[in-house]
Amino acid sequence: xxxxxxxxxxxxxxxxxxxxxxxxxxxxxxxxxxxxxxxxxxxxxxxxxxxxxxxxxxxxxxxxxxxxxxxxxxxxxxxxxxxxxxxxxxxxxxxxxxxxxxxxxxxxxxxxxxxxxxxxxxxxxxxxxxxxxxxxxxxxxxxxxxxxxxxxxxxxxxxxxxxxxxxxxxxxxxxxxxxxxxxxxxxxxxxxxxxxxxxxxxxxxxxxxxxxxxxxxxxxxxxxx
Length: 225
Ligand code: SF4
Prior knowledge:
One of its GO terms (molecular function) is S-adenosyl-L-methionine binding. Belongs to the radical SAM superfamily. 7-carboxy-7-deazaguanine synthase family. This protein is of the alpha/beta class. The chain has a single domain (about 5-160), classed as TIM Barrel, CATH 3.20.20.70. It is built from 7 helices and 9 strands; from the N terminus they run E-E-H-E-H-E-H-E-E-H-E-H-E-H-E-H. A 9-stranded mixed sheet has the order 3-1-2-4-5-6-7-8-9. The two termini are about 30 Å apart. Iron/sulfur cluster binds near residues 37 and 45.
């Protein structure tokens, strides 16, 4: 079980999306993602450039370019929570694509320390986390990297938060929900891509019709990270 993580940023904020919307949270953003979504708003996390490794405090203070990262382990991150003065009791592990990492040790250490833990993943890598971790699957279908959504990810999902801009994205979601592996108890959210009005109108109408939930990127509306 690997304990080495590459962290692009870590900060305390309010979770803006999905079922934990409004909950104070510590975000851990891991470096690296090969999925290739054209509208990705964290493209600086895609590559792991060895020349961009810096000390934790340099990365956390944002004094280096935004594709910089630091290396640490679960215990080190827990100590950083204390030294940074974080008060939140909920941790969101995101990316990049966090499921590229084996997160069993990190999620176990955090849960044992009394945190609730959530991972946000595209569903294209096997999800290795503590059983009590809340899994938010935001499926990225037919992206440039050519990755498939895995059965294991569909089965493990506590919520499926699907990005939508046009009708074909609803069709993609229907296809995923029809797969035998998909957790029938998963909450289903539609999330308009990039706050576009057309996408938002489609998401609202479809949520009402299907009795699904709407997820807005509320942090972007109120101008927080
Ligand atoms: S999976 Fe996430 S981090 Fe990776 S390209 Fe897509 S939106 Fe960006």
